Amino acid sequence: MSRGELPNGKLTASCAHLCIDMQRLFAERTEWHTPWMERVLPVVERLVAAWPERTVFTRFIPANRPGEGSGTWRRYWERWSSMTLAALPPEAVELIPSLARFAPPAEVVDKRVYSPWVDSDLHDRLQARGIDTLVVSGAETDVCVLAAVLGAVDRGYRVVVATDALCSSSDHTHDALLTLYRERYGQQVETATAADILGAWR
Known about the structure:
Distance between the termini: 18 Å
Strand order of the largest sheet: 3-2-1-4-5-6
Number of strands: 6
């Protein structure tokens, strides 16, 4: 397989880019700061810039205040009280400015949990556009990106993970997830660099 080729062939007009949670609350000096985000941002920007009209950004929207949510989410927001909307500046939930400039034509889907497929119209939006393949980038590899990838697999999408357009707070679990995709999900998840993805996308 030469450069620019993917295991399951070219990417076509039925492919969209799902960019997960590239937001200021992770990029800036909050308790959820993701140090790698600055490093991968130029790669994510290249993917978005290539096909902004085929890009869907997700945004993780925190609880309004501690004590909200049910089950373990209630305990979660008590632990992360500094990351609730009541404690954060309003602009914290926004996309990083260099990406926000692409929306529109890029679309934005907000979510209250890790998965963008729960309590959202993401699947309906994609189906209405004839999308059957997703390139996935964003943050964090081992949390919200994982939820997005597995949800896409469950819904039958071909998934291509952009390995150099992901970021995490943990090297160990980032690497473990890439190994997992390659060794356990090879029929449904492909891994490739952004350059190879762009080379295969027409």
